[in-house]
Amino acid sequence: MRRTTIILLCLGLVAALSIVPPRGALGDPVQEKKAELERIKEEVQRIDARLETITEQYNLTRYRIERAKEVISEKERELAALTAEMEKRKDILGQRIRELYKSGNADILEVLTESRTVDDLYTNLDRARRISGNDVDMIASIIASRQEVEAAKSELENRRAALDAELAKLDAQRSQIEAELRRRKELMAGVEAEVNNLIAQEEARRAATVSPRPTPVSRPRTPPPPPPPYAPEVIKVAYAQLGKPYRYGAAGPDAFDCSGLVMYCYAQVGVRLPHSSYMQSRCGVPVSYSELQPGDLVFFHGFGHVGLYIGNGQYIHAPRTGDVVRIADLGRRRDFCGAVRVR
Predict the structure, then answer these.
(1) Which of 127, 145, 184, 271 is the most buried (most CB within 10 A)?
(2) Residue pLDDT, tens place only, 93-127
(3) Is the pTM of this model over 0.85?
(4) If DSSP states are collapsed to H, E and C, what string results for 200-236?
(5) Domain 231-342, CATH among 3.30.390.50, 3.40.190.150, 3.40.50.970, 3.90.1720.10
């Protein structure tokens, strides 16, 4: 009886353990979204590389087309010169024929009866040489040259047509890739926003656990201290980053996301800030909109975005995927939610 009881207890324990999911099986929504974002970022980078390759092929084909046009124009000029020379020689030949006809030359009479125009003489050069060998030889040479030029021109026109077709094909491919890239970047921006929202929810949950009544950052209880002495240098560093591309998770020196830019600028004066806009909102003294000074951190859409205030109602920030570090007007933002002065 005792042995049966032990067996039943063991079986129950095994069953209970099989119901409890292993550690990490439920997954972390933030980490899962970040992993999805990384996959999309890698795909965007691959599409970017394809677009760069197609664009360079497109540029090369355009260059080859322009070069072909130049060669065609040169051949056309050669053809015009040869045509003018041939017409001149034809006039000379016509004059010689008239002179021979007047003199009663039997050979010319025979040839003329079979020739309706001067051009008919070129169909039988051997017989035409009885009239005037030197002139006919010259015209035969010109005709041959003209034929070569026309053949070359025809070949170049065919080549240009092929290049135009290739260019159109590359242009279509480039448009398709650009459209695909836009869609993936829009998806990436959406997933990034989801990540920020999940982080914000987690931060809010933790803050509520630590302090049931948190003091809003945008409503300071006491006047803030004056800006730190290194604030002008921070702003100078921020100006130097203008035009650099936004890239999720980047913190310089060649690309930035919003909190990465702020972290980088302050790091240049020896101040360490976390790489998170939510955490940066806790790294200073809250200041109101009217108290803003250059160097203050300004926050938007639930502290999910951060920038550096530079004075005169403007701030520098790294906006979003596909954009660059730029200056923006604070007054245009309707989602401003607070500011802090780094201590």
Answers:
(1) 184
(2) 667 667 666 766 555 556 555 555 556 555 655 55
(3) no
(4) HHHHHHHHHHHCCCCCCCCCCCCCCCCCCCCHHHHHH
(5) 3.90.1720.10
